[in-house]
UniProtKB/TrEMBL annotation:
It comes from the Bacteria. Keywords: Aminotransferase, Pyridoxal phosphate, Transferase. GO terms for molecular function: transaminase activity. Residues 102-307 form the Aminotransferase class V domain. This is Aminotransferase, class V. It comes from Paraglaciecola agarilytica NO2. InterPro entries: Aminotrans_V_dom, PyrdxlP-dep_Trfase, PyrdxlP-dep_Trfase_major, PyrdxlP-dep_Trfase_small.
């Protein structure tokens, strides 16, 4: 495989934090200068056509990444913002279940990223109620999902890859189960996009939310949502602005018509800079290919796990893990590993007894072997 690490600017040391922030592509500084700063400097207000082209290119790269149409993507500041927008846009006329109850319950696993739960709780005044599947159940336990499903569940939120465990959800199986209860199914891909291949044509879900700050190496501030085009006309966003309009440049305050595709969720004057940065990351990831990144990550994880496995408090299966190894160790071993990682100038994080070590395309086999050797010498 060609050395893709040369395409990224890496911090000094061993970078194992892609689950937090992906590394900067080498081309980002120059490309953002050309697409954002130079038009601003040279054209001022006439830079808008160039800037809006950046957004279209951003959505086009997303369509390539997820095997969907460009028109079905819309920029969002974050995953939680997209989820909140989506929930508020659900049609009220279809809320009643077969039993006459209102469909306002939102179901997700308790190991979902907390921001998703906060987004639902923030809509309690609209009648939404958060229901969590307890953490003692595996996220792929279909019986646990079945136990919590009922006719009053409006939306099931599936985390594709869990940030605190690395567990990959079987989206197809869970979504098919939820859809038998006529629940809408939405998926959070913040921890999988770019590291684990995603095909929306295979999933057939209702919506998808993600961010470019992690494995997509796009920096913070560039989130996105995809909405299934079969259901888009049923959705009426409540946070409207001139870019939610079918014709943003009509400038008639007495006439509003929703944009035909997902851009109806766009809102007011759009942010450009985060998407100019994220576009470069998306182009880089698409050029390398999520399949190649996933295969490379697995090869490095295999090297580490071969030495780490005997030390773990919780067994780990690489087939059920995303790009991050979440390794649980005893206190004595945790202290020893932490010292070794710090001595190697490694970037990592530790939450209680769990070390999270992420393996991206810019990580090398030599780095994986170095970490494996650390485990070989644990007490």
């Amino acid at each position: 495989m060609q050395d893709s690490s040369q395409q990224f600017s890496l911090p000094k040391g061993m970078y194992l934090l892609s689950h937090s922030v992906g590394c900067l592509p080498v081309l980002t500084r120059s490309e953002v200068g050309q697409t954002y700063f130079e038009p601003w400097q040279q054209k001022g207000g006439d830079a808008w056509p160039t800037w809006l082209t950046v957004i279209e290119q951003f959505c086009h790269e997303l369509s390539h990444l997820f095997n969907a149409n460009t028109a079905d993507f819309c920029p969002q500041p974050s995953v939680s913002s997209g989820l909140s927008q989506y929930l508020q846009a659900l049609p009220t006329h279809s809320e009643a279940s077969a039993t006459g109850q209102k469909r306002r319950r939102v179901l997700m696993h308790a190991s979902a990223f907390p921001s998703l739960g906060f987004a639902v709780q923030g809509l309690q005044n609209m009648g939404f109620e958060l229901t969590l599947i307890d953490k003692r159940y595996d996220p792929n336990d279909l019986d646990a999902w079945q136990k919590h499903l009922s006719d009053d569940v409006a939306v099931a939120v599936i985390t594709h890859v869990h940030s605190n465990t690395g567990v990959v959800s079987n989206v197809t199986q869970i979504s098919q189960l939820c859809q038998t209860y006529n629940a809408r199914v939405v998926v959070d891909v913040a921890q999988s996009a770019g590291a684990v291949p995603v095909d929306l044509q295979e999933w057939q879900v209702d919506a998808l939310f993600g961010s470019c700050v992690k494995w997509l190496c796009g920096g913070p501030g560039a989130g996105f949502m995809w909405v299934n085009p079969a259901h888009i006309d049923e959705l009426e966003p409540k946070q409207l602005g001139w870019f939610s309009h079918q014709d943003p440049f009509e400038f008639d305050i007495e006439h509003f018509a929703f944009a035909q595709g997902a851009k109806r969720f766009w809102g007011g004057t759009p942010s450009i800079l985060p998407y100019a940065s994220a576009l470069v990351g998306l182009q880089q990831i698409n050029q390398i290919g999520p399949q190649a990144i996933h295969a490379h990550s697995k090869s490095l994880q295999k090297i580490v796990l071969a030495s780490a496995e005997k030390h773990l408090l919780t067994p780990l299966s690489l087939k059920q893990t995303g790009g991050t190894l979440c390794l649980h160790l005893s206190q004595k071993k945790s202290v020893a590993l932490q010292d070794k990682l710090k001595a190697a100038h490694a970037y990592f994080d530790q939450r209680e007894d769990c070390f999270r070590l992420s393996w991206h395309i810019y990580n090398s086999a030599q780095e994986a072997e170095l970490v494996a050797d650390m485990f070989q010498h644990l007490p």
